[in-house]
From TrEMBL:
InterPro entries: Glyco_trans_2-like, Nucleotide-diphossugar_trans. Pfam families: Glycos_transf_2 (PF00535). Keywords: Transferase. This is Glycosyl transferase family 2.
Amino acid sequence: MEDKLSVTIITLNEEKNITRCLDSIKEIADEIIVVDSGSKDKTVEIAKKYRAKVFYRKFGNYASQKNFAARLAQSEWILSLDADEEISPELASEIRSRIADNRSPFVAYSIPRKNVIFGKFIKYTRWQPELDRHVWLWRKDEGKWKGDVHEEVIVDGKIGRLKYAKIHHQYETVSEFMDMMNRYSELDAQEHVQKGGRFSFPKLFLQPIYNFLVRYFYRLGFLDGWRGFVLSYLMTVYHFELWIKVWEKERGIR
């Protein structure tokens, strides 16, 4: 008998994205779980049209929100998606094939991810699909999200690898990207200080420069055209911003 699949999605004001996401999974999901943290737009209304089970939970952090969604799932397997992601028909077929194989030794599968930023698929600049490969499909009782920032699914067992990538429709504008930088640098700085990390001037100046060189040259960002340069530069700013926030938190400024 084929195992069933629950797709979990956490949302906040995702009406422009969620239809695309739900369309891509409607043929393979036996159950759709949406955990919303207070959308003011039509996100919840759209989700219910796809017969998703919608729950409200105040946002704590990404890991706790996603673990809450996973606990609500009733199927043997869980596929976690963000509302701005979709899966291709090829990936959908591959997922169904793998979870139907009851002889497989794997309790989870990693999936590569294609990132669409500023309107185009970013092939390099450290956004290569294989460099953004993570566990997003796992047996419910074998995995759990961990990490306040850049959360990951940690599983107890063997992890297989899927061939086809899911597609992440990320930032359409520089303003959206910079909003992300501000949110994540705040969380990164807080986590860094909590773990005992310390501010230093060498890190403040050298880490941003190193990040640019890695992304633009070593990871071939120049092959992504102007987007590769802008993304490399913005991530340089991100790391500078991160260490300034660490300095502020150490001194109790924020």
